[in-house]
Backbone:
C-alpha cells in the first residue's frame, strides 16, 4: 500500500508527539499496521518500547555477521540463536530488526528484445494441464497439446488423456495436417519428450523425436534453461485457451471436446487480430505464411504405441489399467501389443491374434466372444466361474448378491446362469439397480430381480426385451407343427353324405 507524504507525517506526529500505539494509529487512520510500522522504520524509529535498541545492541554485531554469511537464514532460527546467547527481547520486535538489517539482493531489471521470425520459419510447442476427466472408474489427466506458428500466431489445439511420447507425436502429426505443412524449426521447453539430458550447451535429444524430426525435415530446438520468454507465444496461447475456450466449456467426452476445439481454432482464434499487424486477422496472415511451410511427407509417420507384453495363466493381456482377451492357446507367451487411440492389436510374431476397441476405463475386461467360448469348450467346468467373473466385472454389487444367495441355500450355478441371461436382456445398468432392490428387500433371488426389472420397464414404458438367440432345447420346444389338410376330412364327410342319400 502506498500513502502520501501528508499521511506519513501524520503517522510520525501521532506516534512521537501524541504517544499513540501502532494499533491505535492503524485503527483510527484505517491503515494496515504494517504500513504504519514501515513509515516509522524508514526514519529509524522503532514501534514498541521507548528505548527498544538497548537489548539488541550487544547482539547486533553477531546478527549482522550471521546475516552477511547466511543472507537467507530465517528470522525464527536467528532468534533462537540469540536467545541461546542471552537475548530476552520479544520475537516480534526482533523480526522487525532483522528485516531492517537483512542484506537485500541486488535486482537488475532485464530488458528483452522482441523476437521476430520469418513466415514458415518457426512454431512453438507446449503441453497445458486442464484438470482431469473421470472415465468410468479411471481418473485421467486432461492434457492439451498446443502448437503456435510464430509468424501468423495460428493456434492448433488437441486434447489427450496423457502427455506420453505417442500422444506428443500424434499432436505434431495432427497439427502438420491442420496447417498443411511443417515449420522449419520447432521450439520446445525442456520436457522429457524432447530433451533427455542437458549440460550447458550440450543437449541430448530424445532419439524418438530426432527420428520424427528427420522424417519431417524440421529442426528441434529447446529454449534455454529458465528462459520461458523465448517461447512466450505458446505460453500466451495457453492462457488465451484457458480464458477464451476452456472456461465454462461443456462437453460430453474427449471426442466432443476436440471437435469443439477444432471449430474454435478455425473460428474465433483465427478471426482475432494479429499482434504483429493489427490491420489483419490471424487467418489473413496465415494465408501468407502457409505457402512457406515445408511440404508434408507422402506417408504419415507411425505413431502407434508398440510394447512387448507377457500373457499369464488367464487369456488376458494387461495394458493401460485394463485387460484384453487373447486366444487361450497363446497363454504364457511373449506377445507384441500395438495401441492406437481407437484400438488395441495383439500380435504373436507377425500374426495378429486379437483386435479390440481401446478402453480408457480402469479394471475393464475387453473381450472377444470367440476367445471365451473356445476356452469354455476346452474347460466346461469353468463356465460357472466365467459367469461369476463376468457378473462381478459388470455389476458392482454382484459379489454381495452371490454371498447372500449362497447363505440362503440357493444353487449358485443356477443363480449365475439366470442373472447372466438378465444381463444380456436388460443391460448392466438396469440389472445393477434391480439387484440392489432385491438385496434391500432381503430376497437375493433371480426371480426377485426379474420382477424388479419388469416393474422398472413398465414404469419407463419401454418394450419388453427380445431374446436374440434360442437354446437348442427351446428351439425344439417351439418348433412349428404342420397341420393336416382338412380337404381329406371334407372328402370323408362328402362320402358319408352320399351313402346316406343313397339309402
Residues:
Amino acid at each position: 500500500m502506498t500513502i502520501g507524504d501528508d499521511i506519513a507525517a501524520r503517522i510520525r506526529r501521532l506516534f512521537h508527539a501524541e504517544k499513540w500505539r501502532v494499533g491505535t494509529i492503524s485503527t483510527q487512520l484505517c491503515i494496515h499496521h504494517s504500513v504504519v510500522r514501515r513509515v516509522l522504520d524508514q526514519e529509524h524509529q522503532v514501534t514498541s518500547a521507548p528505548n527498544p535498541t538497548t537489548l539488541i545492541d550487544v547482539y547486533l554485531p553477531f546478527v549482522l555477521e550471521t546475516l552477511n554469511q547466511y543472507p537467507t537464514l530465517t528470522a525464527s532460527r536467528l532468534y533462537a540463536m540469540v536467545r541461546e546467547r542471552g537475548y530476552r527481547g520479544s520475537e516480534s520486535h526482533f523480526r522487525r530488526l532483522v528485516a531492517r538489517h537483512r542484506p537485500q539482493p541486488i535486482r537488475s531489471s532485464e530488458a528483452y528484445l522482441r523476437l521476430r521470425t520469418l513466415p514458415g520459419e518457426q512454431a512453438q510447442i507446449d503441453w497445458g494441464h486442464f484438470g482431469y476427466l473421470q472415465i468410468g472408474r479411471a481418473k485421467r489427466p486432461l492434457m492439451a497439446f498446443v502448437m503456435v506458428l510464430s509468424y501468423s500466431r495460428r493456434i492448433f489445439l488437441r486434447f489427450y488423456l496423457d502427455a506420453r511420447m505417442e500422444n506428443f507425436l500424434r499432436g505434431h502429426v495432427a497439427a502438420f495436417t491442420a496447417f498443411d505443412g511443417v515449420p522449419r524449426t520447432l521450439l520446445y521447453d525442456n520436457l522429457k519428450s524432447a530433451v533427455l539430458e542437458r549440460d550447458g550447451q550440450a543437449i541430448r535429444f530424445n532419439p524418438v523425436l530426432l527420428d520424427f524430426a528427420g522424417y519431417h525435415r524440421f529442426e528441434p530446438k529447446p529454449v534455454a534453461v529458465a528462459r520461458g520468454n523465448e517461447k512466450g507465444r505458446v505460453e500466451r496461447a495457453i492462457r488465451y485457451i484457458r480464458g477464451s475456450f476452456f472456461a465454462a466449456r461443456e462437453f460430453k467426452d474427449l471426442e466432443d471436446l476436440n471437435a469443439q476445439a477444432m471449430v474454435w481454432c478455425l473460428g474465433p482464434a483465427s478471426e482475432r487480430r494479429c499482434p504483429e499487424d493489427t490491420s489483419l486477422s490471424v487467418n489473413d496472415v496465415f494465408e501468407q505464411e502457409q505457402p512457406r511451410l515445408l511440404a508434408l511427407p507422402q506417408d504419415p509417420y507411425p505413431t502407434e504405441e508398440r510394447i512387448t507384453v507377457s500373457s499369464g495363466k488367464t487369456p488376458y493381456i494387461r495394458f493401460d489399467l485394463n485387460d484384453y482377451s487373447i486366444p487361450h492357446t497363446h497363454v504364457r507367451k511373449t506377445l507384441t501389443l500395438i495401441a492406437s487411440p481407437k484400438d488395441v492389436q495383439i500380435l504373436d510374431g507377425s500374426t495378429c491374434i486379437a483386435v479390440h476397441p481401446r478402453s480408457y476405463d480402469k479394471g475393464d475386461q475387453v473381450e472377444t466372444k470367440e476367445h471365451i467360448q473356445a476356452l469354455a469348450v476346452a474347460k466346461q467346468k469353468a463356465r460357472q466361474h466365467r459367469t461369476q467373473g463376468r457378473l462381478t466385472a459388470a455389476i458392482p454389487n454382484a459379489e454381495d448378491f452371490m454371498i447372500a444367495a449362497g447363505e440362503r441355500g440357493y444353487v449358485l450355478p443356477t443363480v449365475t446362469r439366470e442373472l447372466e441371461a438378465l444381463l444380456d436382456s436388460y443391460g448392466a445398468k438396469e440389472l445393477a439397480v434391480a439387484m440392489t432392490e432385491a438385496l434391500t428387500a432381503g430376497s437375493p433371488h433371480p426371480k426377485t430381480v426379474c420382477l424388479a426389472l419388469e416393474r422398472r420397464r413398465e414404469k419407463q414404458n419401454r418394450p419388453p426385451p427380445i431374446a436374440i438367440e434360442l437354446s437348442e432345447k427351446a428351439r425344439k420346444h417351439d418348433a412349428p407343427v404342420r397341420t393336416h389338410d382338412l380337404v381329406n376330412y371334407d372328402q370323408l364327410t362328402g362320402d358319408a353324405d352320399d351313402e346316406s342319400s343313397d339309402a
